[in-house]
Design a protein that fits this description.
This protein has about 210 residues and is mostly helical. It has 12 helices and no strands. The longest helix has 18 residues.
């Protein structure tokens, strides 16, 4: 199966990354919210700086928004995100006993949490079978011919049908890292790609 071969090859070159070492669902949730439209090399230091001062829903909910903004100022839309993580913290305290819910329906009720963020939390924080689809996953899945879709939501559904369930939790991390390193949006490095023999898009580029 193509999807299994893709995941197998990528697992061979990408060791478990940052979130594999984190077992705090609240940390994963906040970090994923901060990561929206922001690169990992900015998100991770900002999250660590934030949690060095405010390490719990109780602390963030009671914080001055300006203090949160200063700690996360390097991430995109930091003022909006500061308000969101404060509101998320308050909701967790009021409705979930301070705990991050472990199901997608409740996660989607939180401010600033869409399907990608919710599925990241389920995958990385709770090790549940879920496929988080961002721009990298959407682009690469279509380039490889795993799916033929127009939206991330369609890609999520399509991948669920072609990727064995026991591999779902690896899809996001592996394709994101692959998309950053090799299968870039513009000028992908097809000449060094370990998936070149599987990729119909590469054949198209060569014959043009």
């Amino acid at each position: 199966m193509l999807a299994s071969e893709v995941i197998s090859r990528l697992r061979g070159i990408y060791p478990p990354a940052f979130f594999e070492r984190i077992n705090d669902p609240f940390y994963v949730l906040v970090s994923t919210v901060l990561s929206q439209r922001t690169r990992d090399n900015v998100t991770i230091p900002a999250t660590e700086k934030l949690f060095s001062v405010y390490g719990s829903p109780q602390a963030i909910a009671a914080a001055d928004p300006e203090d949160i903004e200063k700690l996360i100022k390097d991430v995109g839309f930091h003022r909006v995100k500061a308000g969101r993580i404060i509101e998320i913290s308050r909701i967790l305290l009021e409705e979930y006993e301070g705990k991050v819910p472990d199901n997608i329906d409740d996660l989607l009720k939180l401010p600033g949490v869409g399907r990608k963020t919710a599925n990241c939390v389920l995958t990385y924080a709770f090790r549940k079978d879920a496929i988080a689809v961002d721009t990298h996953v959407h682009r690469i899945s279509n380039r490889l011919g795993l799916v033929t879709t127009n939206t991330p939501e369609e890609t999520e559904s399509g991948l669920e049908h072609v990727v064995p369930r026991q591999l779902w939790q690896y899809v996001n991390e592996l394709l994101v890292r692959f998309g950053q390193d090799v299968c870039r949006p513009i000028s992908p490095k097809c000449d060094v790609c370990l998936l070149a023999d599987l990729c119909p898009s590469r054949v198209i580029r060569i014959t043009e």
